[in-house]
Design goal:
By secondary structure, the protein is an alpha+beta fold. It contains four helices and two strands, in the order ββαααα. The protein has a two-stranded antiparallel sheet with strand order 1-2.
Amino acid sequence: MDCIHESCGSIDKVWLPFVVDGRMNGLKTHPYCIHCGAVKNISTDKPQKTAYYINSLSRIDKQVFKLTKVQIRLIVKELESIKNFEDVYSMTCETKNEIFINIVENYCNVSERYIASILEN
């Protein structure tokens, strides 16, 4: 994350579509960063920090699939290498979940459905 986000004032917000549960719900004012211009995610789909995904990886390891230390380290390094993954300002939870599922599937023989179920808990 290159920018330390600072929201615009309440008057300067931009009008953009507002999505609730994947459906358009009209327009709503969205704050944006005065430094980089990233529009803040104000949907109900709030993203989690990287630690949440590392904890989910730990649950996968403990519950059914025994992961090696190498697999865990490679998954964590790849998560850390994704630009703006830690940025809860502009990335949605759904996007982060898809990224996490793809990475885990690359390194482990774990089904997408199982990983998604771990993320829902």
